[in-house]
Amino acid sequence: MKPIGDQAEQFVSLARALHGHSSEASWVMMDNWNECIDACNACAAACEHCAHACLREPEVATMVDCIRIDLDCAALCRLAASFIGRESSYSPSVCDLCASICSECATECAKHPMEHCQVCAEACRACAGACRKMTDGAVSDSTVSIGISG
User: Fold this and answer.
1) Is a pLDDT exceeding 60 seen at residue 20?
2) CATH number of the domain encompassing residue 120
3) Dist. CA 146–CA 150, nearest whole Å
4) What share of the chain in percent tops pLDDT 70?
5) Neighbours of 132 (CB within 10 A)
6) What is the pLDDT of residue 33?
7) Run of H or E including 101
8) Is residue 20 part of a domain?
């Protein structure tokens, strides 16, 4: 989310000065990061909700794998958002792992017909895609070094 009007220009100028980047490629990458942070936070919330809802299912024993991966996925998504937010040089590695666990969580949740599982599966797929987009951009765009080169 970007500020409006004069504040937007001030924000962009300040952020570029702080990061020493003025290229459009840098800002495209930062947009990818913001998208990834949002997707990670949304996924974590969906996974936490799904795990909680699974615990209320009549046959909770059949939901154990779903609950476990939901909790792991939520924790890793929160970690990834934190790493990206502070521009850690480990962000690409953490996001690569996040994309993997989100894909696995999506697969597990998609096995179950409950709405909370289907919503979670969709959030996981979106997060996996955003993480891959972020890490692909970090690897393929050598002009962008915000937090990537450490």
Assistant:
1) no
2) 1.20.1270.360
3) 8
4) 69
5) 18
6) 79
7) helix 91-110
8) no
Kindly report the pTM of this predicted structure. 0.73
Model pLDDT for residues 131-147, shown as the tens digit of each residue: 999 888 664 443 333 34
Q: Which domain holds residue 59?
A: 26-140
Per the structure, the count of domains in the chain is: 1
For residue 46, being part of any structural domain is answered with yes
Burial class, 19, CB count within 10 angstroms (exposed 0-12 / middle 13-18 / buried 19+): middle
50, 120 contact by CB (below 8 A):
yes
132 Cβ contact list (under 8 Å, min separation 6): 99
Number of helices and strands in the chain (H, E): 5, 0
Task: Report if residue 103 sits inside a domain.
Answer: yes
Provide mean pLDDT across the span 92-112: 97
Query: 46 near 123, Cβ under 8 Å?
Result: yes
Q: CA-based Rg of the chain, rounded to a whole angstrom? A: 17
Whose structure tokens read 């993997």? Answer: 100
Q: Which residues contact 16 (CB under 8 A, 6 or more apart)?
A: 22, 26
Best CA proximity match to 41, nearest among 85, 2, 6, 1: 85
